[in-house]
């Protein structure tokens, strides 16, 4: 089979998952901090997801056990660039050493991760956008990307409180399909009785099997398919965040940044087996 041809089994699987994702988006009335719908979608879609997850649970356990027992592969190298190229007429972004916030996601056991803060060129509001990328490889019981212990804010944190926020949605360039990102608002301090000193808007998405996936269940399915096709288990979680004012200013800034750079960052991860663009 040529590299441009797609297996009919994989094609039908992709169409099925795409249909479930469209149904999920269409039925969404709101979001929790983890991006889950407040109300379940139609019973048929919910039943289908439940059946597939249940059917593949044993497969995941067997693959996780095999991954834990297998000899580790070479350690990946992950480095975000100092400058993100922009299309003509758009704002360029330069890495800065000035921290955007004293926050990092509580994602454990990544094979490699990197973080950077980017400040825009003149002509914009001057506020920075942060990027955090975690790459997972040789996943097993002790090290996996999708697990209940990988969260934006650890339970019991007094520094940050995670709040629901509507999901983000961006269009990829060159006629690419739209990508949904799970959104969470972080508030500091965590005590709701105290006046907030800082708010962050965080957008989160997975990169699995050459595509962006917002939900945990969909990402697990694509990861299983990737493993079965013999392409390993390299996958990544990408987070983009910026300051959010009381009036909600900051969402448009994040939208512009992600629309400009999400495709290139994802393509770089794919092209180098998990290696992001070398920092220059």
Uncertain segments = 1-11, 23-33, 35-49, 65-71, 274-280
Count of helical segments? 4
The largest β sheet comes out as: 10 strands, antiparallel
Strands, count: 10
Given helix and strand content, the structural type is alpha+beta
Beta content: 15-25%
**What is the N-to-C succession of helices and strands?**
HHEEEEEEEEEHEH
The backbone outline, from C-alpha atoms, is globular
Mean pLDDT level: 78
Q: What percentage of residues falls in helices of 4 or more residues? A: 25-40%
Supply Rg. 19 Å
Terminal Cα span = 38 Å
What does this structure look like?
- 29% of the residues lie in helices and 23% in strands.
- Strands 1, 2, 3, 4, 5, 6, 7, 8, 9 and 10 form a 10-stranded antiparallel β-sheet that branches.
- The model is unreliable at 1-11, 23-33, 35-49, 65-71 and 274-280 (pLDDT under 50).
- The protein has 280 residues and is of the alpha+beta class.
SSE map:
Elements: H1 8-27, H2 43-69, E1 83-84, E2 93-96, E3 112-120, E4 129-136, E5 161-164, E6 168-171, E7 178-188, E8 198-208, E9 211-213, H3 216-228, E10 235-243, H4 251-271
Antiparallel strand pairs: 1-2, 2-3, 3-4, 4-10, 5-7, 6-7, 7-8, 8-9, 8-10
Task: Quickly list its features.
280 residues; alpha+beta; ten-stranded antiparallel sheet; 4 helices; 10 strands; 23% strand; disordered N terminus; disordered C terminus
